[in-house]
Each structure stands twice: as C-alpha cells, then as structure tokens.
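To whoever is covering the structure queue this week,

Two jobs came back overnight. Logging them here so there's a record in the thread.

Job A:
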Amino acid sequence: MKVPFLDMWRMHGPLEEEFVTSFRKILGKNGFTKGDELSEFESNFAAWIGTDYCTGVGSGHDAIVLGLQACGLKKGQKVIAPAMTFISTITAIIQAGGEPVLVDVDSEGLIDLNKAEELIKSGIDFMVPVHLYGQIVNPKELIRLKEVYNIKIFEDCAQAHGAQRDGIRAGTVGDGAAFSFYPGKNLGALGDGGAFVTSNQDFNQKMIALREHGQTKKYYHKYIGSTSRLDNIQASFLNTKLRYMDEWNLHRINVAKSYSEQIHNDQIKLISNKLDGSHVYHLVIATSDNIDDLSMHLENNQIGFGRHYPIPIHHLECFKQFGWDKKSYPNAEYIAYNSISLPVFPGMSPTEVELVANAMNSFGLSQLRVAS
C-alpha cells in the first residue's frame, strides 16, 4: 500500500459542492476582487488568529514583503532572521529593502533567541522569527525582547496557522505577521494567497494601500506599492476551510503523537516533538545521519516524504554577495542535510501512520543482519 506525502482531496472532497456553489455565486455576480467574500474572510481570519486586522494578498511571500514595508522597515536596515527557513523569508526581507543578518537555529529548527539577543544588543532592531514546521517560537521570550530592547518583530507564520503557546497564538506577538495560503499549507487555498495580520491600525492602513499600487483612494498614490490581491474566489474557499481548521490541526497533532509512540529506531530522531498545541505539524521532521539511505528505504517501501530544506540558506548562490560564514550555522546545516519530512495531513488513516512507522522502524535492519 502506497502512503502519499500529502493528499488534499481528503479535505477537499467533502467540501466540493460548497466550493462549486461559492464559485457559481461569484461567477454570476462578476465580483472577483475586493468583495464581500474577501471582507468576510479577513474578518474571520483575524478573529481566529486574535488580531484586530487582516489584509489578504496574493501570496505569503507578498505578505512578508509588503508587511515589512507596512511595519516601517527602512531601506538598508538590518534584519535578524534564522538560517533555517524557506528562501522566501530571506528574499522578502531583501525585496522589502532590508539586509538579512542570519542567526543559527536550535536543534528543533527555531531561531536561537540567545544569539539573536546578542545581535540586538549590537544595535540591530528588527527581527523576523520563523515559526518553522508549524511550531511557534517562544512567544514570551519574543515579547520580552520587544519590550526590553524596543525592537520591531515581524512573524513569519507561513507554516504555523493556529499554533499557540502559553495562551499566545502565532501572529499576535509582533508588530505584524505574514501567513501563506499556498495549497499545501494547514490552511491552503485552491490556488495561492496570503495575509498580513496586525493589531496596529496605521500598519494595516498602509498595507491596504501597498497591496494596490500604494493608493489611499482611487488614483491617489501615497506609496510605491504593488498589485497583490487575494481574490474573492480564493477568499471564499478559505472561509469554508477555516471552519475546519481546529479539527484538522488536531488531526495533524494526533498523527505526530502516533509517530512518536510507534517509531523506535536509534538511527532516526523525530525533532520538534511537541504535542501541547504549540506545534500544529505542518511538517513532521525526522533526522538521520544516513538520510540518503533512509530516503531510498522509504521510496522502496512506497512511503511519500519531502525535504525541507536540503540546501542551507547561506549556501545558496543567490546570496553569495552577503559572504555569510558557512561555519557559523551548524544546526541549520545539520537539519538541512540530514532531515526528511514524513506524511501528515487531515484524513490520514491509522493504517497509513502504522505503515510509515513500520518502514521507519525497519530502516537499518537489513544492514544489521548482513553485518552480523
């Protein structure tokens, strides 16, 4: 039996008729942008996250670029960011006018806040923590850094829809935050989309302008903006899916819990193993010193898997002008080169979880038998 890495139909199939009805409604009234569907989703998503405002945009990447600008990032300003993240975090900082300054991550892939604090003490006053894999960076510590040093914090929540710790939800800690609705995300569109959330009215008003050519009203352009809209069709689909998010996140957590109970192999380690709601398991990450052999083993057992992200940020050719020391980020390097992502999605069956666990547990056994 083949186990897919991701099967979105198990979420979308039961909602097909509702999606079709929404599409026909929008098609019939010719209302494709800036309509009631978008306003309703923005209101509902802000309420679910716990912020005062939400502004829908065309992608999670745009939400970071425009969101940083809305929050006051200045041209040439240095911005602390983790060395383990998707490239979008770093390129967005650059495109928004900032200069990324990398910090290594801890053993679970989250930005090392102790090292970040040293950079803050040196005078850097803008930081983009990434809630990687679905786990929230310690929110109380982020709040402390913000209060003690008067820095700006912009959260990259692209993988952390609904993650919370100590009663604090991802997206509510910083001056602003970005979410991605790429189809494979915990809350994904049936195309693409993103959102900026904040509780600062001024930042929100600027973001609304920036997403539409910088205009504050038609043909009155206060800023150099962009064209980045979350259309009504995608907003409607997202609004439908939002109703199921708590249920779907719980399913992901239960899959991760089953993995932690069933996978027992000294050659494999599950990282970021948090089952308290602070991790909503966009990804379940396993590490091994024999990652290529493990990948081949899973392929041979028809187990889908991913690699997030196999080339460290500081090794990518497009960033060579920054001259980042390749020896300064050992945890980011280890995770990049030695991790895989296991299947996790709403609707994944106990049988599929068991098949994945059995494949993980059998890794290395054939080699051990040969050796003996």
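Job B:
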Amino acid sequence: MKRRSSKYAGKYVAWVNNRIVASGKNQLILYQKATKLYPPEKVMFEYIPTKKETLTFL
C-alpha cells in the first residue's frame, strides 16, 4: 500500500473490483472519466492523503 499511497498521494482514485481504474485531483472529472468506462454502481471513490495530511499531532 505504501507504493500506491506515494504514487496517488493528494489525488482521488476510482476503484473497480479492487483495481484502480482512474485517478485525478478533481473529483468531478474523475467521476466523469470513471463512469464512462464502468457503471456508476460498480465504481468506488477514495482520496489518498499526502504524508503531510496524515500526520497526527498529540
């Protein structure tokens, strides 16, 4: 997962059957791109945070 996280850090990804099928920084464009290829009910979307965004301060 670390490799995937660094490659897609700061981006939204679209998943179909546990595979990343599209990625991008804009949610709407990603949705449009992914749903042209697959039915909307088959696509799952996720944001991959950057390393800075995942830091937790106690």
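Note for Job B: The chain has a mean pLDDT of 88.

Please reply-all if you pick these up so we don't duplicate work.
Q.
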